[in-house]
Amino acid sequence: MTIIQLPRFSSTAAKFWAEIPASVKKNLLDNVYCSQCRGSVKVVNIAGIVKGGDLVLTGSCAVCGSGVARVIEGSN
């Protein structure tokens, strides 16, 4: 049984994420590469921080539970 947690974001990451349209957010979260599954998967249990002006999302693969990450470039 997979337990899904609520997202955890720093305050700057939450502002960055809030500016992204809902349809784009869904696409970003549903298409993250997992090196264990060797393909595109959904990310769960996400956390977000901003590094160097980019949003870095980390979480777990919804299929195998391995750690995955996605970088969303800022407008810099």
Overview of this structure, please?
The chain is of the alpha+beta class. Helices cover 22% and strands 41% of the residues. The strands form two sheets. A four-stranded mixed beta sheet has the order 1-4-5-6. It has a two-stranded antiparallel ribbon with strand order 2-3. Strand 5 and strand 6 form a beta hairpin. The mean pLDDT is 90.
Topology record:
Elements (H helix, E strand, L loop, with lengths): L7 E2 L1 H8 L3 H9 L1 E3 L4 E3 L1 E9 L2 E8 L5 E6 L4
Parallel strand pairs: 1-4
Antiparallel strand pairs: 2-3, 4-5, 5-6
Give a short overview:
The protein has 76 residues and is α+β, with helices and mostly antiparallel strands.
Task: Describe the structure using short key phrases.
2 helices, single chain, alpha+beta, 4-stranded mixed β-sheet, 6 strands, 22% helix, 76 residues
Beta-strand content estimate = 35-45%
The helix count comes to 2
CA-based shape: globular
Rg over CA atoms: 12 Å
Instruction: Walk across the major sheet and give the strand order.
Output: 1-4-5-6
Largest sheet: 4 strands, mixed
Low-confidence spans: none
